[in-house]
# Entry
Amino acid sequence: MTAQPASATRVCRFCEATIPAAARVCPECHKDITGRDTSIAAPAAATIEPLPLGPMPVSLVDINLPFESMVWFMVKWAVAAIPAFLMLAAIAFAVALVFGLLFGGLARLAS
Ligand SMILES: [Zn+2]
# Structure
């Protein structure tokens, strides 16, 4: 086996040369690379901050869905809009009923 797998190499953070992952000194620029390197995945769980409890704010920057998933999502959305619309209609009916009883009766008395 002559070729190294891609995972056995990394990029030197000083000269950006591809070097063996186990190297402690870069063969290109001869700088010490044993310090913490943020270009590789952090191996220790202690360096990862624990997730805060409770709801987390999410900033949605893009939606990259396959077309079929998007269509299915939109179908579910449209179906879910039906009970949502019925709830809004019921609320609007209740509000209209209350205002109708309050002011409709007064208007009828005034005329
Ligand atoms: Zn280097």
The pocket of zinc ion is lined by residues 12, 14-15, 17, 26, 28-29, 31 (CB under 6 Å). The CA atoms of residues 56 and 103 lie 45 Å apart.
